[in-house]
Amino acid sequence: MTTLFISDLHLDAERPQITELFGRFLREEARGADALYILGDLFEAWVGDDDPSETGAFVADELRAVADAGTPVSFIHGNRDFLLGDSYARRAGMAILPDPSVILLYGRPTLLMHGDTLCTDDLAYQQFRSQTRNPAWQAQFLAQPLAARLAFAQQARAASKAHQSGLQSQGTMETITDVAAATVADTFTRFGIDTLIHGHTHRPAVHTIDIGGTPRERIVLGDWYEQGSVLRLNRDGHTLESLSQGSEQRGFCSAFPQPRDKHGARRSSCKGDPKGEYSELPRTSAFNDLKSLPPRSVARLPRAGRRNISPPFASTHKPEPAQPLIASPS
Questions:
Q1: Considering the entire predicted model, what is its pTM?
Q2: Domain-located, residue 325
Q3: Residue 311 is assigned to a structural domain of this protein
Q4: CA distance 270 to 268
Q5: Is 328 inside any structural domain?
Q6: Residue 242 lies in a domain
Q7: Quick one: pLDDT at residue 129?
Q8: Taking 80 as the threshold, does the pLDDT of residue 51 lie above it?
Q9: Long-range CB contacts (< 8 A, 24+ apart) of 142-147?
Q10: For residue range 177-222, what is the model confidence (pLDDT) as tens digits?
Q11: Is the peptide bond before 100 cis (omega within 30 degrees of 0)?
Q12: Residue 321's CB: how many other CB atoms inside 10 A?
């Protein structure tokens, strides 16, 4: 069995094909999983549980079906849906976890976050986040008429786009909107964990970082703007894969480095690679531009439709569900 992690779906009425892709994912895969974790930005915007949107109703019904089928669903707020409340969570059958949360995942403490708090170089965003996460601000905002809240959401999206355009014109977009290396290292140290899973940056990758002589793993989930992205994890390993709307898919399969052959390539130990081969791409830093250079020890594998292949790292053992442990550093 497998635990599933997703984030940054940004669901709204303007992209119904992605909402339907999410629905198929829930019906065909999530219902058979050990647990499903949604690490923020499930919706493009959320202005209150009283918003009667068709997208919100559809998603709640689909998530409730997953929970009723026996798969626990957990949610962490993102920067777009931090106002999602207990009323909607109960309707969807999901539990809201603090950001951050440490869970016991197949016996290993694992830190879950949305990821925006790692982007500490973006001072303007961090100031906005501090303001909007204030309970007094939220209470005042939710007391406004729905129409006013929807108008604010549109203005906030426009301001966000303008902010990103400004960073792009300054040539700082790639660094400012990504995680800060020092903040990541400090997070690993403060929480005393070896594995961190987060979203927010829309830069899916598996990073191995040496901190104090100990290798730590940071797994970044992808977004769902044009296709789906899911992390599948169980006792034997994990895969970080894309879910296309058609039959063609591309997958990422993490594997420990194996000895090189005479051509300089490594042979994969990944069970999701039927040929047992991949070409390792060199990497000089855990914080490189991942759009052009995937991290070390990540195999990029072509995939046919998922119905035609066995789930990678399949296990016949059904482990205990992951349980939240703590939400603050030790």
A1: 0.75
A2: no
A3: no
A4: 5
A5: no
A6: yes
A7: 96
A8: yes
A9: 142/48, 142/83, 146/47, 146/48, 146/50, 146/51
A10: 789 999 999 999 999 999 999 999 999 999 999 998 999 999 999 9
A11: yes
A12: 15
Q: How many CB atoms lie within 10 A of CB 85?
A: 16
Alpha helix stretches (DSSP H) within the chain: 16-28, 54-68, 86-92, 123-132, 135-142, 146-170, 173-176, 181-191
> Which amino acid type is present at position 10?
H
Instruction: Name which of 8-17, 18-27, 206-215, 317-326 the model is least confident about.
Output: 317-326
Number of helices and strands in the chain (H, E): 8, 16
Q: In the chain, what percentage of residues exceed pLDDT 70?
A: 70
Q: Which of 44, 127, 30 is nearest to 84 (CA)?
A: 44
Q: Residues 6 or more apart from 32 whose CB is under 8 A from it?
A: 1, 71
Task: Please tell me the chain's helix, strand, coil percentages from 3-state DSSP, rounded to the nearest 5.
Answer: 30, 25, 45
Angle value at C-alpha 262, between 260 and 266, nearest 5 degrees: 25
- Name the burial class of residue 94, with classes exposed (0-12), middle (13-18) and buried (19+) by CB atoms within 10 angstroms of its CB: buried
Whole domain around residue 209: which residue ranges? 3-257+267-305
User: In which band, very low, low, confident or very high, does the pLDDT at 158 lie, cut at 50, 70 and 90?
Assistant: confident
Return the pLDDT at 324: 53
Strand intervals (E) in 222-291: 228-234, 237-243, 249-254, 266-267, 277-278
Please give the Cα distance from 3 to 230 (Å, whole number): 10
DSSP string, 304-326: --GGGSPPTT--S--PPPPEEEE
Q: State how far the Cα of 33 lies from the Cα of 70, in Å rounded to an integer.
A: 9
Q: What is the CATH number of the domain that holds 58?
A: 3.60.21.10
Q: How far apart are CA 130 and CA 132, in angstroms?
A: 6
Whole-number Å distance between alpha carbons of 248 and 316? 27
Q: How many domains does the chain have?
A: 1
Cβ proximity of 250 and 266 under 8 Å: no
CB 220 within 8 A of CB 198: yes
